[in-house]
Amino acid sequence: VKQDASEAAKWYRKAAEQGVIRAQYSLEYLYTTGCGVKQDRAKAIQWYLKAAAQCEPDAMYNLGCVYRNGDGVKQDYSEAIQWFRKAPAKGHRDAHVQVKKLGSLSNHPQSASTPAKPCCAHCSARSGSVGLG
């Protein structure tokens, strides 16, 4: 079967719109790279947020990178730390390193030890908090 990035994007979008987490995450990649769709950083971040809202650890980690670097959003270390702190709880192996790096910046107002806000409704119910933050 011949590879067709536009066709793949169409099917990822259909699945993503139905709430399939990995499809949402994959669609973000397509919008970031422009593979099969017109490159659109705002749409990419939108799909990251949808996947992260369902506790997808790679999406959480990548949102941390987006906010750390100011890639398509205003640079915000506090927001980056929140996403980096959520990712390890859901299985991401490298996010804790980013928390330490950002927490050690002398100009960063938020301590790396500040608890992360829950990532999704399921986690919010367990912690007694509400929302993504």
Features:
single chain, 133 residues, mainly alpha
Could you spell the SSE succession in H and E letters? HHHHHHH
Count of DSSP helices?
A: 7
Summarize the biggest pleated sheet: none
**What structural category do the secondary elements indicate?**
mainly alpha
**Overall pLDDT score:** 78
Low-confidence regions: 106-133
Beta content comes to under 5%
Distance between the termini: 43 Å
Radius of gyration (Å): 16 Å
Query: What is the molecular shape?
Result: globular
Number of strands: 0
Q: Name the helicity range.
A: 55-70%
Give an account of the 3D structure:
The chain is globular and about 45 Å long. It is mainly alpha-helical and 133 residues long. It has 7 helices and no strands. 61% of the residues lie in helices and 0% in strands. Helix 1 (5-17) crosses helix 2 (21-33).
List the helices and strands and how they pair.
Layout: H1 5-17, H2 21-33, H3 41-53, H4 57-69, H5 77-89, H6 95-103, H7 121-127
Give a brief rundown of this model.
This protein is an all-alpha fold and 133 residues long. It has seven helices and no strands.
